[in-house]
Amino acid sequence: MSKTFHALILAGTSCGAIGSASMVATAQGRTAEKPPVTTTVPSLNFYGTPGVIDLPSAEALPDGQLAVGVSHFGGITRTNLTFQFSPRISATFRYVGLQDFNSGGFETFRDRSFDFRYQLVKEGRYKPAVTVGLQDFSGTGIYAAEYLVATKNFSRPLRLPGKVKVTGGLGWGRLGSQGSIGSPFGVDRPAFDPNDTGGEPSTDSFFRGPVSPFAGFEWQVNDRLGLKAEYSSDAYDLETSLGIFSRNSSINVGAEYQVTQRLRVGGYYLYGSEIGINAQYQLNPKNPIATFRLAGPRPIIVRPDRSTNPAAYATDWTASESAPLQVRDAIEPELRDDGIRLESITVSATRAEARVSSIRYDNQAIVVGRTARSMARIMPPSVETFDIVLVNNGLALSKVTVARRDLETLEFQPNASELLLSKATIGDAEPRAASAAVAPEDVYPRFSYSVGPFLRPSFFDPDEPLRAEGGVAAEARFRFAPGWLLSGEVRHRLAGNIEDSTRLSDSVLPRVRTDAILFAQGGDTTLENLFVSKQWKPSKNTYARVSTGYLEQMFGGVSAELLWKPTQNRLALGVETNYVKQRDFDQRFGFQDYQVATGHVSAYYDFGKGYFGQLDAGRYLAGDYGATFTMERQFANGWRVGGFFTLTNVSSADFGEGSFDKGISLSVPISWFTGRPSKQTVSTTIRPVQRDGGQRLNVSDRLYEQVRDGHLTDLTNDFGRVWQ
Q1: In the prediction, which pLDDT does 102 show?
Q2: Whole-angstrom distance, CA of residue 694 vs CA of residue 679
Q3: Per-residue DSSP letter, 50
Q4: What span, in angstroms and rounded, lies between the C-alpha atoms of 214 and 56?
């Protein structure tokens, strides 16, 4: 037994070191060519959507594209965020500042709105693209409009260089206020009300009132320079009546320049009186800023042929009581060097199970592949079947079973990943390892800590659209047994202006979130959280969690959760219940008088291709009852973009500005920026307005988020990297 292991380890280490060094040197020595500037991506208009200048076009951005745009003219500044959620569907969030509007006592009136676009027809050789759009369909309605638009591209028309793009459409609302040709669907369209709190879809206005034609022309002269002209059907009645600017013409012209692959800027002359500027930055989660670099894996050691060397497949080594310990001691340091933690190992004459968790990788397929390689390098030749159990925070997520002979024969085959996936089995994992399993001596207890900067933003204060505070955060996590966690975080603010706001809450509901300013004013050094949690698997398909302590910035108490999620099932069901009290504003150890019991029943569904839906129904922190609907898209590299809205029994009047809770969530993996494997992410949630209705507890480590990336769909989607 010992001689076999020593021989395998020595041979494997030598080959592995040479192979890794060679691949790293190749990756580092390769000179990346600077990609040429291209303008195949549609340019954006002043509203941040594909368009001409101030008007929309029918084009769609590349699937998954994320675009940020800032435009300004005539005292109007629009900041736009657009996401191409699917090949046909896109959504835009917009924040607008109107100077001298003087509504509500502000020198600059701030407005938030959402757009929705659906491409009905994709452009073909002879047919144009056709898109229907809703502009400002769920805001105050200042920019409310609907449109049906068509766009056609022509290459080298009339022997001109570059490309020409022609757009024509029909607009309602603002886009039907100049040059109307009638009201085909009725004239009853409510007028803009400056006292409206906004937030509710204006379904009674859709495609109502006068309709007007509009048109645009774009000439992309070369890879960098583009010229534009359009006829606008927006009369800007509100702005001109308030004297914000004078509209003397319906013709707008401009020129744009592609500075880099992602950045485009433009200058324009609009409405016969105004100079405008527009800057747009587009990126795609599928195209990282830094190329992902990963040191090459150790080679698989192929066993000798059984027919010529049957003695190598002898199983007498299993008689040694020290065999499992020798296996553990051989494989654990190799996995650790690869960024994988061995939780336990179980071996028999023909089968071995390794329970592993990722230290470094957010892609579980890489964890599977590298664990399988180490097992193939170290296990005695008689061990033919490998069970790799993926573990996250003590929870056994799934079991991937691969045959050793497949690893040996498929590695260098074309479509090796697809072939291995077709032969592997992904199923439910037992909650605990077998009684014969052995674990590394230092697997528990485990202590980790981190010290680094923090940044807490606050959006859309009418006096200051962007506020923030930042400083130093220190976090410690102590795992003293499987599934147990003691965690805490302390923050010290070094700078910020959230506490400077004078706009205190006017909520008629219990102030469970709108007292954020008072929490910011509570002190510079705060206890962000301090809690103990236990999570475990009651059965193969169920997961459980209990947490107690100071659970988040504003609340402390007890939280319990149960999740049903079979590995191969797209559907998951969960229930969560909490009893919490509001913390003191200084965020130390005291509590205020407000206490509440909350809870939700949740359904999660994986629609495939990276689309996830979630429905949570129950009681919220302010005591209101209702449901939250969430739709999210996740990319293979870990990017996540989603949107949500919550409807409860709180009336629009009691809820206040915005009418109901809604927002956008964004999570970006650090590896997308650095090109190096990492489990860290940067996340934020953007709400048009923060109110008290529809608010949930921000408890750490909810179960579904821990479980789903180790189950069938995510593993299948990521399996292309199993050989990396």
Answers
A1: 60
A2: 30
A3: B
A4: 9
**Angle between the N-to-C axes of helices 364-378 and 323-337, in degrees from 0 to 180, rounded to the nearest 10:** 140
Most confident range, picked from 13-22, 63-72, 181-190: 63-72
Q: Using DSSP, state whether 421 is helix, strand or coil.
A: helix
Mean pLDDT of 520-542: 96
- The dihedral built from the CA positions of residue 607, 608, 611 and 617, taken in this order, carries a sign that is positive
Whole-angstrom distance, CA of residue 171 vs CA of residue 178: 10
Residue type at 237?
Answer: D
Instruction: Judge contact between 390 and 367, C-beta under 8 A.
Output: yes
Query: What is the DSSP track for 289-310?
Result: SS----PPPPPPPPPPPTTT-G
Strands 351-358 and 385-392: parallel
Q: 396 with 474, same domain?
A: no
Percent of the chain whose predicted confidence (pLDDT) is above 90: 74
Residue 323 phi/psi, 5-degree rounding, is: -55, -50
Please choose, from the candidates 535, 602, 611, 593, the residue with its C-alpha nearest in 3D space to the C-alpha of residue 575.
602
User: Same domain for 430 and 459?
Assistant: no
Is 30 a domain residue? no
pLDDT per residue as tens digits for the range 444-492: 999 999 999 999 998 888 778 888 999 999 999 999 999 999 999 999 9
**pLDDT digit string (tens) for 261-283?**
999 999 999 999 999 999 999 99
- What size, in residues, is the chain? 724
Q: Which domain holds residue 637?
A: 446-696+709-715
Give the count of domains, the chain: 3
CA distance 437 to 346: 4
What predicted TM-score, i.e. pTM, was given to this entire model?
Answer: 0.89
> In the predicted model, is pLDDT for residue 562 greater than 70?
yes
CB 603 within 8 A of CB 615: yes
Domain assignment present for residue 13? The answer is no
> Residue 495 above 80 pLDDT?
yes
Q: In which band, very low, low, confident or very high, does the pLDDT at 403 lie, cut at 50, 70 and 90?
A: very high
Q: What is the DSSP letter of 500?
A: G
Q: Is residue 184 part of a domain?
A: yes
| Alpha-carbon distances of 661 from 15, 44, 84, 645, 650, rounded to whole Å | 58, 28, 22, 6, 11
Reading the block at residue 644, the tokens are: 């949500």
Judge whether residue 659 has pLDDT over 90. no
Asked if 376 and 467 sit in the same domain, the reply is: no
For residue 104, the domain's CATH number is: 2.40.160.40
pLDDT of residue 106: 54
What DSSP assignment string belongs to 550-604?
A: E-SSSEEEEEEEEEE--TT-SEEEEEEEEEEEEEPTT-SS-EEEEEEEEEEEEEE
